[in-house]
Prior knowledge:
Structural class: alpha+beta
Number of domains: 2
Number of helices: 6
Number of strands: 13
Helix content: 25-40%
Radius of gyration: 27 Å
Amino acid sequence: MKNQLIRIIAIALLGVCVYINMYEIDELGLMQFFAYAGLLGFTFAVGIPIIFIKNKISLSKKFGLLFLSMIIAAIIPLLGFGNLKYILEEHLMNKEMNKVVNQYNVNLQTDEVFLTFQNHLLVGKRDDLFGSIDKTLLVYNAAGKETKRIKITELAKAAVPYLPLTDKEKETTYFDGMKTQGNTYDLWEKIDDNDIQLFFRYVTTEVPEDYQPEPDMPADAKDIKFHYDITYSPVLDENGEFVFSSDTFHLYKSNDSIRVSYKASGIEAIVAPNTAVLVNEIK
Length: 283
């Protein structure tokens, strides 16, 4: 009896681990369904060798144990084990945030993203989509005192002279906005670090070398333009001032990173966000 109990517990624990790993929350609930189906499939697949191999009980009892394992697997999602994943991930994110809060004596909200630079801290709101360019970044010193408050349009304007482009190319370059990425975890594995980036976009009609038209581009496409993304990753020096250098900019020049806009019959492929503004017109 003890031997059979160990087998059932082993199957259940493995199932819990698989379910937690697969569990995701989405609006339609499809990921929860797939996690549930995956749990049942895994339990059946792993239950057969664990229960049937080197087990001296009768065949009918083996099938009975397998059936019991499937019932337990069906109950696991009802016990809320999927939420353990989010509890663990939230704990790890809060732990990292609290470390910075204690080091810099600042109050950070869960929707804020932070970057540390020597004795200064850069803070912005978490936002991975282009929306408004009326956003602000804050700079704190080691004592937790706010030393600078700058709008991203001001920062973008200051970065323009250092863009890896010629003056002529800057005439058709846009500032699209800012994206921020907070720390993210998949269980205990860190997937993304805090990140803050300003996005610029150089637009040209010059066809890139070795460029291959997109398969779904209509034959009557016209007004074709090529868009090169340029990112600026803010860096602070020891005085809390923003640094602009070749290391802080990245120009995406490979063909697979170039985006294309065009017009065709009944179609207009748009690349630019509605917040885009020419860099020479940033106010």
